[in-house]
Specification:
The structure is a homodimer of 538-residue chains. Chain A is an alpha/beta fold. Chain A has 16 helices and 14 strands. In chain A, 39% of the residues lie in helices and 19% in strands. In chain A, the strands form three sheets. The first copy, chain A, has an eight-stranded parallel β-barrel, surrounded by eight helices. In chain A, strands 9-10-11 form a three-stranded antiparallel β-sheet.
Chain lengths: 538, 538
């Protein structure tokens, strides 16, 4: 209805991919990988990056501090329980940020207070108030201090309102309403948020944080927005605990596509960066995005049935409510011959959402030229795979020198491997069910005397990067150390990329071994309550 | 609030996995595969199976008719445009069903009428009325006749109400409101559905069909239910065009988990069958379910962060709003030694949602015993992989006799393959970037003289079925014929399973070749408006 243009930024996008997202089992990232994701979040132009949970581990602390130090133009948040030690670590990690945002939380539902924390409602309020005050004192009058009432949607509403009132009085400028267990239905969640918005008025921003256990996280987020919430906590690809969080791309594109339903509500997000960010997070975490995922699935913009194809050919508006270009999806394939050198490649990479120069650009250029010798067509997908492999590089103490393998129908495979470990040659032979089994066993045999443990394979997959029998294969391998068992064991992922799937498999395995070895040397942190999978080798 | 027990079935679950779901690019199934999915839908106890679109192709017609003939205890629906030819084919296909449900549709939005159909609003009503009457005459007074106003959410509301009024007068007993482009927001969609419910009263059931382009399909479905809709069109895993449809598992579990929000609204669905159905559909279509997919993702019931683990150990209710058992998720691993023979295996398979006896049971038993020789632990995942491989079996005119391959670092791989084609020996050698490239090229060389075309690889992936270097690898291969290009080309998928990934890769490739060959011999249908990927070799 409003004819005037709406100012961007009336809705604050709080991205928690690096905190709640990274808590998903198997999604742990190294500090370098977290920093790479943070760079993409800056390019996306989110308002707040929740970088981690500094008290969880020294690795998490370091990653948060690096992001706080190295990113600009965005607020950096860190999570802390309302418990002595946590907020201090969080403040220490984010103090260097351009705009630090302390995020303290405590459970408020009776089931959590009674069965987990063993404290009374009054004690919970006292703790909340204490640590909000602490944050305000430490970070000064201009900092954003956020308080979350964990399990808010299962908390007695009258008590919940008392909690929010107390923390706002104590200096909280953002109050967050998490649907921790993914339990809310949009109509009831909107009504709850409305009561909180009415309570705090202009004294604080109301924030929401929705989990997707019943598939309703995006809808609950939008219902809360319509009810007056102005900070939305979301993640790329909906990554997060269990069924994950509300997904950034769905929330942002719903606002953009249906402006009449959300009058005067606009984010600052550069939607054209969505596809690149989605791909990077999927790659680094090893979490596939399903083909039918909204906005970022490979089929999200595909029209299959004859009727739909017919309509789209006649007029795209018949079946398209947003364009693929608006989320940065380019459909181009390219022939490497037409790149006209490094400059052409640089332009192409920029189109794909990546800015490279100098040595990094030279490396990708050399790899692309070499690839053009091995396969007929070098496509966007091939370039993205090269970029991704680069993003997950780790310092290598174990390096591959050579290998060979033979395998046949019905028989055992036989393989040999030559490695260097800190420059010293190691080689071994082994047999196995197939070539990968044989070569992994040979690697194990070559390394066991040096390491004192062997890598244990948890998960393995290979995907072709493009069509064609000559395509590159992208391997994803997850491993732990044989000496590290149980639910708290450190599990790392390793990626490999080659037109030979055996080479890609070995490369991924050795990346995982190098990460495990780095973690062993530098010391691995465990979580504070019970062991958590943490992967911070540096 | 109501103390009395609620009768099951007050909400009709209309599953369209085999119609809208199968329209997803790359998800096409053979008639045998569609029948296998239909059997699982019967076990799930859905109310209606929409089996296909009989006018789309002879293959689709045959699949719908087989499902209509062979399933009992469920209504079988078929889709038809309001256009001469379509409804006749649909009626012919479903007439043999225990409870046939004809589903006719026509677009009603101005954008579709003007830009795609080139007809007036009045003409659209006349067509709708004509074909609803036809269905009623053909199928008699007791049959369910359903009418859909395609693109209803972008249709002028006053006109939309006129359309529904006219078709109910003509004999439609279900009126469906599709959000064809995935455009609706729950609050507005609920309001629209309420107007339609008020209009038709008890004369017809109001149905809804929501697409997920903005991530809101489940929420829109539930909002419509709260507004009075009583038939919900959903798919397993949310499969479907573009970002897919509302997912059955999310809608059903939301109702079950939050009964106070949906008083007196209960489905008949056996939720314990959800996991088995989800796995089967994912496997047969080759569409991965992402780890953070609600209800059926591999992480949906995983608790990772220390805080959550701590809570769940103290009391599961702290973070679990539904149990893994309620959706049929068993966490067991088993050792094959403890199966105590075929009977033990049969019980185990039943737990996993599969009922086998006789020869089928013997085959799986022999395979499980053989597998126990090749790998240390045979787990539930291994048994499920064997069952799935069985579900996708096709008649084979090309069979694998033997193969061998050698590959090494930096060099070309060399492989040889021996096949029989209709019992005649064929063999060839080839080199390639890696072992799979070499062996696929050898297969191509062996087959080219017989087939006159070669298989073109569109997609390839391998996943380990379980942890461990000795795990089984599950290969998924998609191919077309070199003689069949463009957007309408027939693309088929082939699965392979072996502890040797090269063997699994070859097996998957040959399954795809056999499907392509079967399609060539039996004739492949193309869609009616513009070419569609159709995969009905039988």
């Amino acid at each position: 209805m409003s004819g005037a243009a709406v100012a961007p930024g009336s809705v604050r996008i709080f991205d928690t991919t690096l905190r709640d997202g990274e808590q998903a089992p198997g999604a742990a990232l190294t500090a370098a990988e977290k920093l790479e994701v943070a760079r993409h979040l800056v390019r996306l132009n989110v308002d707040v990056i929740e970088a981690g949970f500094p008290a969880a581990s020294p690795g998490d602390f370091e990653a948060v501090q690096r992001i706080a130090r190295e990113t600009r133009g965005v607020a950096v948040a860190a999570l802390a329980r309302c418990r002595d030690g946590d907020p201090q670590r969080a403040v220490e990690a984010i103090r260097v940020a351009e705009r630090p945002q302390l995020h303290v939380f405590i459970s408020t539902s009776d089931i959590h207070l009674e069965h987990q924390l063993h404290i009374t409602r009054e004690q919970a309020i006292a703790e909340a108030v204490k640590w909000v005050r602490y944050g305000r004192e430490q970070l000064g009058p201009d900092a954003e201090i956020e308080f979350s009432a964990m399990d808010a949607t299962r908390t007695d509403t009258d008590y919940l309102l008392k909690v929010y009132e107390a923390v706002v009085d104590a200096g909280a400028t953002t109050v967050n309403v998490p649907d921790t267990v993914g339990y809310a239905i949009p109509s009831e969640f909107g009504a709850l948020v409305k009561r909180i918005v009415d309570l705090v008025g202009s004294a604080a921003t109301v924030s929401i944080h929705c989990h997707n256990d019943l598939g309703l996280a995006t809808a609950n987020t939008l219902a809360a927005l319509q009810a007056g919430a102005r900070q939305l906590e979301v993640t790329i690809n909906g990554l997060g605990e269990r069924a994950g969080n509300a997904s950034l791309e769905e929330v942002v594109m719903a606002l953009r596509t249906r402006p009449t339903q959300f009058p005067d509500l606009v984010t600052r997000v550069q939607t054209e960066q969505i596809t690149a960010a989605s791909r990077l997070v999927s790659y680094l975490t090893g979490f596939a995005v399903q083909p039918n995922k909204a906005i970022v699935g490979s089929n999200a913009f595909a029209h299959e049935s004859g009727i739909h194809q017919d309509g789209v050919l006649k007029n795209p508006l018949t079946y398209e409510i947003m364009t693929p270009q608006s989320v940065g999806l380019t459909g181009n394939t390219l022939s490497i011959g037409k790149l006209s050198g490094r400059r052409g490649l640089q332009g192409k990479l920029r189109e794909l959402g990546h800015q490279l120069e100098g040595e990094a650009l030279d490396t990708i250029y050399r790899q692309a030229i070499a690839l053009a010798d091995a396969k007929k067509d070098v496509t966007d997908a091939d370039l993205l795979a090269l970029l991704e492999q680069r993003a997950s590089a780790v310092p290598a103490s174990v390096e591959l020198v050579g290998w060979s393998v033979t395998s046949s129908h019905g028989g055992k495979a036989t393989g040999s491997v030559s490695l260097t470990v800190n420059g010293v040659d190691r080689s071994a032979e082994a047999t196995g069910n197939g070539p990968v089994d044989a070569l992994y066993s040979a690697v194990d045999a070559a390394l066991q005397p040096v390491l004192g443990w062997r890598p244990v394979l948890i998960d393995y997959e290979i995907k072709a990067v493009s069509a064609g029998e000559d395509a590159q294969g992208q391997a994803l391998v997850r491993c732990r150390r044989s000496s590290d068992e149980g639910p708290g064991a450190l599990v790392v992922s390793g990626h490999g990329l080659s037109t030979n799937i055996i080479e890609a498999s070995l490369e991924g395995y050795l990346v995982a071994v190098n990460k495990l070895r780095g973690a062993e040397i530098n010391g691995v942190s465990v979580a504070f309550v019970s062991p958590r999978v943490v992967e911070e080798p540096s």
